[in-house]
Amino acid sequence: MRMMRLLAGVALASLMGVGAAGAQTVLRSSDTHPDGYPTVEGVKYFGELVKERTDGRYEVEVYHSAQLGEEKDTIEQVRSGVIQLNRVSMAPFNGTVKETIVPALPYVFRDEEHMHKVMDGPVGDQIKAAFEPVGLVVLAFYDAGSRSFYNSKKPIRTVADMAGLKFRVIQSDIFVDMTAALGANATPMPYGEVYSSIETGVIDGAENNYPSYDTARHVEVAKYYSLDQHTILPEVFVMNKAAFDAMTPEDQEIFRKAGADSVGRQRELWTEMTENSRKKVEEAGAQINDVDKQGFIDAMKPVYDKHVTDDVLRKLVEDVRATQ
After folding, report:
1. Topology match between the domains 2-143+234-275 and 147-232+285-322
2. Pick from 211, 193, 206, 229: which is nearest to 153 by CA?
3. Alpha-carbon distance 63 to 27, whole Å?
4. What is the three-class DSSP state of 287?
5. In Å, how far from its chain's centre is CA 172?
6. DSSP string, 132-197
7. Is the pLDDT of residue 23 over 80?
8. What is the per-residue pLDDT across 132-157, written as a single tens digit (0 to 9) for each?
9. Strand (E) positions, the chain?
């Protein structure tokens, strides 16, 4: 951790003007999604607010489309201070921040409104605090909608239809175990490899939300989109803690407030894009169907038994379910 702070301090100092009044600090932020995607635009808006509220002393450069690497790589870059900001899915943090296991659990949220209430409340605050010991400060939780399975073979209507199919999943043990509990085979791989892997038959499909299914053009190679809606997994926007700690308390408050203020903008854009993406994939020939969701929910008991393993996590699950 001491080495991470040192590296972050060096990286931050190298970006700052030396000795001049009003010196500017340029912070780099990574996102795997394309330009215009709601998370990218949410971070851009955050950057606008920071620049305005610090009178230009800080500027945020957003590197979209995995220009700085896939999520696993950029998580290590932001923890070490090579980059200062990062928007990633919460699932890849399951191994380092155990509290992130809870929002990644299948069917833990009733719907997106329930997820908002949970992540905007005390449970969200507890999860934010858990990032700091691993060198990160959470500035915002962003929407990523509900994730469902899609494939190139057939519609999925019941758990039995999942048998034997090969799906790409996020690099997370929970997603691997969830897929196995449904009788399918999970293949963790980087997001950027999914299209070619479906096209060449390495996998049969993947699981994601409408905007990702649309913008990554997976609809071209996997026409069957089945609305099992297994997870409503928030995205997380984080900052290197050493870089954050190097700022004045006043600037820290500006960054925290800008992160919170960017959430509303991101959610508006997300709702709009989800509606547009559903229309686009339907026009592109996607066959969208409902599923026997209760069967999927019932199949998740082994996943909870394996991953909700201590009192902290059990209490968090109870708190999520009790949130009205």
Report:
1. yes
2. 206
3. 11
4. strand
5. 12
6. GGGTEEEEEEE----EEEEESS----SGGGGTT-EEEE-S-HHHHHHHHHTT-EEEE--GGGHHHH
7. no
8. 999 999 999 999 999 999 999 999 99
9. 25-30, 58-63, 85-89, 136-142, 147-151, 166-169, 185-188, 205-208, 224-231, 235-240, 287-290
How wide is the angle at C-alpha 196 spanned by C-alphas 157 and 173, nearest 5°? 60
Distance of CA 230 to the CA centre of its chain: 15
**3-state secondary structure at position 203:** coil
Enumerate residues 6+ apart whose C-beta is below 8 A from 226.
148, 149, 150, 151, 155, 156, 157, 161, 288, 289, 290, 291
Contacts of 62 (CB under 8 A, 6+ apart): 29, 31, 40, 43, 44, 47
Strands 166-169 and 25-30: unpaired
pLDDT in tens, 63-96: 999 999 989 899 999 999 999 999 999 988 998 9
Looking at residue 72, its pLDDT comes to 87
What CATH number labels 2-143+234-275?
3.40.190.170
Out of 3.40.50.2300, 3.30.200.20, 2.60.40.420, 3.40.190.170, select the CATH number for domain 147-232+285-322: 3.40.190.170
* Residue type, position 6, single letter: L
* 176 vs 162: CA distance, rounded Å: 14
Residue labelled with tokens 């790589």: 73
Domain boundaries, the chain: 2-143+234-275, 147-232+285-322
Which is nearest to 211 in space by CA: 44, 30, 36?
A: 36
Render pLDDT for 212-248 as a digit per residue (tens, 0 to 9): 999 899 999 999 999 999 999 999 999 999 999 999 9
pTM: 0.85
d(C-alpha 280, C-alpha 58), whole Å: 38
Q: What is the CA radius of gyration of the chain?
A: 20
